[in-house]
Amino acid sequence: MQRKPRSPDEQLLQPYLLWRVALVSVLFALGCFGMFEWSLRRGDSVELARTIVVNALVIMEIFYLFSVRYTQGTSLSLRGVLGTPAVLLGVAGVTLVQLLFTYTAPMQALFDSRPVDLEAGLLAIGLGVALLLLLEVEKFLVRWMRLGVRA
């Protein structure tokens, strides 16, 4: 709300926004396909591999949400992590639903999901952290290139 509104003559999809959508899409695809392949290579069933990917996707989305909290600056701050109460409530709700999807018998029967072990869960969280850090580095580099000095 502190920034001036976009000019009506300005393009809706700026080159930076297109770049960001492409970058995030590629990172999400690599993360999902990488988790699926990792799961299959360790001998998991296809059903478990799919469940791991869904969990990884949700975790990456949560970390991405915190990354885009501040598009012009870093999100790696207490203010960035705490967000707003509505965001934190939403994240808590999504996490609860994801746990139900993964670990309750009715949801497993409905979605053919499987319980995810600690190793896969920690790897998915690590993937979310890596995504956040990569996007923060990208934001820093964009600010640095725009300013011509360290931001």
Structure report:
The chain is an all-alpha fold and 151 residues long. It is built from six helices and no strands. It has helices at 15-41, 46-67, 78-82, 85-103, 105-111, 118-147. Helix 1 (15-41) packs antiparallel against helix 6 and helix 2 (46-67) runs antiparallel to helix 4 (85-103). The longest helix is centred in the C-terminal third of the chain and has 30 residues, at 118-147. The protein is elongated and about 50 Å long. 18% of the residues are buried.
Descriptive tags:
mainly alpha; 151 residues; 73% helix
Number of strands: 0
Strand content: under 5%
Indicate the structural class.
mainly alpha
Order of helices and strands: HHHHHH
Please estimate the helix content.
over 70%
Question: Ends: how far apart?
Answer: 22 Å
Overall 3D shape: elongated
Q: Which radius of gyration do the C-alpha atoms yield?
A: 18 Å
Q: Residue ranges: pLDDT <50 for 5 or more in a row?
A: none
Q: Report the sheet with the most strands, covering strand number, pairing sense and barrel closure.
A: none
Helix count equals 6
The average pLDDT score comes to 89
